[in-house]
Design brief:
There is one protein chain. This protein folds into 2 domains: 13-436, TIM Barrel (Alpha-Beta Barrel), CATH 3.20.20.80; 456-605 and 627-655 and 683-706, NAD(P)-binding Rossmann-like Domain (Rossmann fold), CATH 3.40.50.720. Helices cover 33% and strands 16% of the residues. The strands form 7 sheets. It has an 8-stranded parallel barrel with strand order 1-4-5-6-7-9-13-14, surrounded by 6 helices. A 6-stranded parallel β-sheet has the order 20-19-21-22-23-26, with helices on both faces.
């Protein structure tokens, strides 16, 4: 076996296998095609497969999608692309689980409502099986019921239906496609196994409201429809049998499932934190965007984890138990992903794994947990309906070239036995377990579990009263990062030397950094204790004479005394701790709207707009290079948690002309700028850009959120 891949598919940590997945959706929205293999860059990185194998996972959900082999597809890959990658996976000892349709509706010329959809997909399945006769595991259609909801009930994806009957037809057509595809595959390889996936989020209702109880019961029965169809359970006694008939799915149509050969060999649950919902008729308790209804009753549809339900009723273990108890067949978590800060992503993966291991210990046949979106996802925050370029990293961050392993990769390697130690931030609980998660009106029984007395914390060095200091502390609270401010030289050195800090963040201005424990001494203490050190610096290490944006490899050229002091701090810190992290910022835009004391000079961006100033007053507001404080802190903490090192420029940046960004942003608040009113990049101003990766949101996004926070965008 080449390349050090996982050995023979044996269970790893906790007695279950660790699988992985490449987000491979090809979804059609109108005439636009979203292709995640292309959008995450995986299409052009064959060495991604070696990165997967290095994690020690035993199997990977991998695409041979119907649409990608159609020459009309904008990102047509062809057989050669698939041949090379499947050959490489097998050479690395990683078992492919081949997907044939992933949230798709097939190539142009068919869709989920096409009665021949299943026959057409089966022909593709036959071609795949004949080309790869030794591949055993298949997922012909990922999440049939979920795809049908988004495509035929909610209208998000093609064919954009909004009807319960169309939804049921789409579910039936996809499940029929699964069974016909598996019959075609098994005609080539009789040992082929069906690994069927579905999102099984449960719906809860406020007690004592019959209409809500009815809605929750209906949705909780409906969530199993795809599995029930494949297992041949849908007949006259099934709760949805009459609805299917009304949608045109006859008992004769259902006969395709009667032989039982559609029963999955592995029942896969794709589980997401917000998949579990709580229905409440008290609309006034929730923001308007949660309001909805079923045509009879109006209710708010909110996240169940925020509703004060008992912990044992929600979460991955509870939902995996539902699946096991209903079908009594092998089960697995086939997607585990959380779009949040890095340590929260790890905590979610930890909780999913712990739930699977605990259920297996109770006697359930739990096979695996799947680390989903190894290379991240793009625009899933809008269900792919908007091209915002919103990227959520996975085990690797593809904004870097080559993709940079994140702390998630380190955690996966610990689960597979490739590393011994896990990340110190895992001592905390995810936000879905902290008391702060509950809506204000909820009074849950019991009290939150106390933090462990010996929790290692993030040590902050500087002023907690500054705008930047307050911003860092607030975001640490939001992210559940135990942290403390250093109160003096002895306290600072003692915390580090006693091993009570897992990392140090230094936000002191240059003069303060020369007093007490110097930046050089602080970096050396961190190096000695083998903990990360983060120093904040700024654009002042450059004088603005270069005539283009400055990148990390440009030599420093300070134009002021503060710049000289910062450049000296950077040099000394990285010399003392070569694996330390230095973050340079632009002028920091804080939500205080004015300035941030110390060496992080705030930019009074849009202050004039906040006070109703005219267009000409906007001219001097900014140079077009800034770092919005919440974005800056989140990005810097992600780098710190990931173990990144060296110099990084963290600014809100994009390719758009700054004048256009200002015009569009101000237009959203009713301020029109003419050519003389737009903000111009002045000579001698310093603009930063990163040659390592753009990990900060775009400028327009930052400005829009800043305005929204100050109630200037409705």
């Amino acid at each position: 076996m080449a390349g050090g891949g996982a050995q023979d598919g044996r269970p790893t940590d906790g007695g279950i296998e660790i699988w992985g997945g490449v987000e491979a959706t090809i979804a059609r929205i109108g005439d636009d095609w979203r292709d995640q293999v292309f959008e995450t860059g995986h299409q052009d990185r064959p060495d991604d497969l070696d990165r997967i194998a290095d994690l020690g996972i035993t199997a990977v959900r991998y695409p041979v999608l119907w649409e990608s082999l159609d020459p009309r597809h904008p990102h047509h890959r062809g057989w050669d692309w698939h041949d090379a990658r499947i050959d490489r996976l097998q050479a690395l000892g990683v078992r492919p689980i081949l997907g044939l349709v992933h949230h798709g509706s097939g190539p142009a010329g068919t869709d989920l409502l096409d009665p021949a959809f299943g026959d057409k997909l089966a022909r593709h399945a036959d071609a795949v099986a004949r080309r790869y006769p030794d591949i055993t595991d298949y997922t012909p259609v990922n999440e049939p019921l979920t795809t049908a909801r988004f495509s035929a009930l909610y209208g998000h994806w093609y064919p954009h239906g909004r009807d319960h009957g169309l939804f049921l037809k789409a579910v039936f057509n996809q499940c029929r496609a699964v069974i016909l595809s598996m019959r075609a595959i098994r005609a080539v390889n009789p040992a082929a196994r069906l690994v069927q996936t579905e999102d099984l989020g449960k719906v809860f209702a406020r007690p004592g409201v019959p209409d809500l109880a009815f809605q929750a019961e209906f949705e909780n029965e409906r969530r199993f429809l795809s599995f029930d169809l494949l297992c041949g359970r849908v007949g006259p006694g099934h709760p949805l049998f009459r609805d299917l008939g009304a949608a045109g799915v006859t008992e004769r149509d259902l006969a395709v499932f009667r032989d039982g050969d559609g029963r999955p060999d592995v029942f896969g649950m794709n589980h997401y934190l917000t998949s579990e919902r709580f229905l409440d008729d008290r609309l006034d308790l929730y923001p308007a965007h949660f309001h909805g209804g079923n045509g009879r009753t109006a209710y708010a549809d909110v996240e169940a984890v925020r509703a004060g339900l008992p912990d044992d009723d929600v979460g991955p273990k509870a939902r995996l138990r539902d699946l096991w108890e209903r079908y009594r067949g092998p089960v697995a978590i086939t997607e585990a992903h959380h779009g949040c800060s890095r340590e929260e992503q790890i905590r979610w993966l930890r909780d999913c794994h712990a739930g699977a291991v605990a259920l297996k210990a109770e006697g359930a046949d739990v096979r695996a947990i799947t680390v989903w979106a190894l290379f991240g996802v793009v625009d899933w925050s809008s269900l792919l309906t908007r091209r915002n370029g919103h990227y959520e990293p996975g085990a690797f961050d593809v904004r870097h070239d080559p993709p940079r392993p994140t702390a998630i990769a380190r955690h996966v390697r610990r689960l597979t036995g490739r590393e011994r130690e896990d990340h110190a931030t895992l001592t905390g609980e995810g936000w879905w377990r902290r008391a702060s998660r509950f809506y204000a009106h909820v009074r849950p029984d019991g009290t939150p579990a106390p933090r462990a007395a010996e929790t290692r914390r993030l040590l902050l060095v500087g002023s907690g009263r500054s705008a930047v200091g307050r911003g860092i502390a607030e975001i640490c609270e939001i992210r559940g990062l135990d942290h403390a401010w250093s109160v003096g030289r002895d306290d600072l050195a003692g915390e580090i030397e006693a091993g009570r800090a897992w990392a140090v963040v230094d936000i002191r201005p240059p003069l303060a950094a020369r007093q007490g424990v110097s930046g050089e001494r602080l970096a050396d203490l961190c190096r000695t204790r083998r903990i990360p050190y983060l120093l904040f610096s700024s654009e002042k290490v450059f004088d603005g004479s270069l005539g283009r944006p400055y990148v990390e490899s440009d030599p420093v050229a300070p134009g002021c005394e503060t710049g000289h002091q910062l450049a000296d701090l950077e040099r000394r810190a990285l010399s003392a701790h070569p694996e330390g992290l230095v973050v340079r910022t632009g002028p920091v835009l804080t939500d205080a709207g004015t300035t941030a004391p110390g060496h992080l000079d705030g930019a009074p961006v849009l202050d004039a707009a906040l006070h109703g100033a005219s267009a000409p007053a906007l001219i001097p507001l900014t140079t077009g290079c800034f770092s919005y404080l919440p974005d800056l802190v989140h990005a810097a903490l992600d780098l710190l948690v990931d173990g990144a090192d060296g110099l990084w420029h963290l600014v809100n940046d994009d390719e758009d002309d700054w004048d256009d960004v200002v015009r569009r942003t101000m237009g959203r608040v009713g301020v029109t700028l003419d050519d003389d009113g737009a903000s111009r990049l002045a000579d001698g101003r310093v603009v930063l850009r990163s040659e390592r990766a753009r990990v900060m949101p775009a400028r327009e996004s930052a400005l829009g959120r800043y305005l929204a926070k100050h109630r200037l965008v409705l």
